[in-house]
Each structure stands twice: as structure tokens, then as C-alpha cells.
Amino acid sequence: MGSEAGTFKCTFKDCAAKPFQTQYLLNSHANVHSSARPHYCPVYECPRSKPGQGFKRKNEMIRHGFVHESPGYACPFCPDREHKYPRPDNLQRHVRARHTDKDKNDPKLLEVLSQRRDGLSRGRRRRGAPQ
């Protein structure tokens, strides 16, 4: 897979995307050219649950859901450790920006990043696999 040329090409003016393998993938890509944000956060008080504030892609909405469910990842280098980041990539971005002297493989950082919520898996769920 991966290296095969796709036959479904985006017809949006000046779009440089490579042809897609399936019509479904092309349709999914078309959302990047639209102002529509059809996927909303189900948490009532969340700003991303309001019209116009949703997500273009369903996977973005699902990833956003972790901000409501995560116990948070505290920065091991900040003295107060008060602010917690909802996702590991948020903490990693913080460390790159605020703690430039720290390595991404620092043992303290890796220890915090290794903490995962129960039930979260890093892999994709396979079709037909038990849920």
C-alpha cells in the first residue's frame, strides 16, 4: 500500500495534494478546503461545542476530547508543577519552547510521558477486533 498511485484527484483550484487511493479519502480531504466544521465537542460548556467552533475532522474532535478526560501531564521542570497539559504532545511542545536546555529523552520527562490514562491505546483499532 503506501507507494501505489491514487486515482482520486482533488479538483480544488491550486490544490497540491497527491491523488488519493479511495473516494472516501478524497471526500475526507475536501474538508480542508471548506469552512464547515461539522464535528462538535459533546461537552456542553466547551467552546468547541458551539456552531462554527467545531472540528473539520472527526479524529481532531476525538483527540480534543482528551482535554476533558485527562488527569493531565505536569511539567517535571517547572517548579510549581501547577499547570497540567491534557495531552503528551502539549507537554512536549511546552518543554521545547520553555526548557530549551532539556533533551526530549530526559528521564524525568519520559517518566511523566509514560503515564497513560487507563483504557487508552496508542494503536489504531483494527476492524473486527474486539472492543
TrEMBL record:
Q: Which UniProt keywords apply?
A: Metal-binding, Zinc, Zinc-finger
Q: Where is the composition biased (Basic residues)?
A: 122-131
Report the residue ranges that make up the C2H2-type domain in this protein. 8-38
The record's section on SMART domains has: ZnF_C2H2
Which residues does the annotated region (Disordered) include? Answer: 85-131
User: In which residue ranges is the amino acid composition biased (Basic and acidic residues)?
Assistant: 85-121
Example of a GO biological process term? regulation of transcription by RNA polymerase II
- Quote one Gene Ontology molecular function term: zinc ion binding
Specify the protein name. C2H2-type domain-containing protein
Give the organism the record lists: Parascedosporium putredinis
